Amino acid sequence: MARVVVDVMLKPEILDPQGQAVANALPRLGVTDVSSVRIGRRIEIDFTGEADLDRAREIADKLLANPVIEDYEVRLVEGAEVA
Amino acid sequence: MRIGVVTFPGSLDDGDAARAARIAGAEAVRLWHGDPDLHGVDAVVLPGGFSYGDYLRCGAIARFAPVMESIIDAARGGLPVLGICNGFQVLCEAHLLPGALTRNQHLHFRNRDQWLKVEATGTAWTNGFTPGQEILIPVKNGEGCFVADTKTLDALEAEGRVIARYIKGNPNGSQRDIAGITNEAGNVVGIMPHPEHAVEALTGPSLDGLGFFTSVLRSLAKDGQLAGGQQ
């Protein structure tokens, strides 16, 4: 079995109100040196056999990310402990 | 005239949408997400709610439902389709409408009666309104902030494809106060507020929502005269 990880992030020009809310909460923790927080999503895909990066890209492009507002990155995780 | 209303797992407003279609004078036909057969309907409403629990992104999974494959094909062929709230999100995810709907800018769920100004009145779903008409219908969403790149927004404006804008306050931060848009052909319309909740004095703030449903009936009747009942 093999694992592919897909990271989905809002495009830089899209406002991320969740990230802003987190950034605005940081001073309450005494953190004052963070200028920006952006929140995305990490998706782990476990293939039954060999990891298929092209297939993972297709999944990401069609379903996991909305290319209108999001960018994604697909990467193979070597030696991942896959259940 | 038969207006189909789709039920996805997690749809909430399918009953109200069917009721609004009936009040407007149509026969409401319930369509099931797992059934690709559109049962000969003349128009389709994708209702509000939380299809598939809003998992992944609102509308992202509903787009791949068997019924949606038929609707996407039929919409490209001219079938009038109205997406309300979650239905609007589904239409954007299905690329029948441009842009996307994201988390409300202020992060709060907004539930209130909302004033809108109707702009494009050449569409299948808005032809009963007059340009500039102000209407009051409920809005209720957590992810209703319409976004698109500047080029797309400019094109929507230039081509007169903004069907309604928020006035007297923007409830979710939508770019350029956009509440609803249409496709190039004018048969597919998405709107974030809920016209189906403003069709009766007892339960709604106005009867303004009825205009969307009577518009499509008028448009179908007109097309019927011109094209012998075929869209």
TrEMBL record, chain A:
Pathway: Purine metabolism; IMP biosynthesis via de novo pathway; 5-amino-1-(5-phospho-D-ribosyl)imidazole from N(2)-formyl-N(1)-(5-phospho-D-ribosyl)glycinamide: step 1/2
Keywords associated with the record: ATP-binding, Cytoplasm, Ligase, Nucleotide-binding, Purine biosynthesis
Subcellular location: Cytoplasm
One Pfam family cited in the UniProt record for this chain: PurS
Record's keyword annotation contains Ligase: yes
Entry's EC annotation: 6.3.5.3
Catalytic activity: N(2)-formyl-N(1)-(5-phospho-beta-D-ribosyl)glycinamide + L-glutamine + ATP + H2O = 2-formamido-N(1)-(5-O-phospho-beta-D-ribosyl)acetamidine + L-glutamate + ADP + phosphate + H(+)
Record GO biological process: 'de novo' IMP biosynthetic process
Keyword Ligase: yes
InterPro entries: PurS (IPR003850), PurS-like_sf (IPR036604)
GO cellular component: cytoplasm
One GO molecular-function entry: phosphoribosylformylglycinamidine synthase activity
Gene3D superfamilies: Phosphoribosylformylglycinamidine synthase subunit PurS
Main subcellular location: cytoplasm
Function: Part of the phosphoribosylformylglycinamidine synthase complex involved in the purines biosynthetic pathway. Catalyzes the ATP-dependent conversion of formylglycinamide ribonucleotide (FGAR) and glutamine to yield formylglycinamidine ribonucleotide (FGAM) and glutamate. The FGAM synthase complex is composed of three subunits. PurQ produces an ammonia molecule by converting glutamine to glutamate. PurL transfers the ammonia molecule to FGAR to form FGAM in an ATP-dependent manner.
HAMAP family: PurS
Subunit: Part of the FGAM synthase complex composed of 1 PurL, 1 PurQ and 2 PurS subunits.
Family: Belongs to the PurS family.
Name used for this protein in its record: Phosphoribosylformylglycinamidine synthase subunit PurS
Organism name: Actinoplanes campanulatus
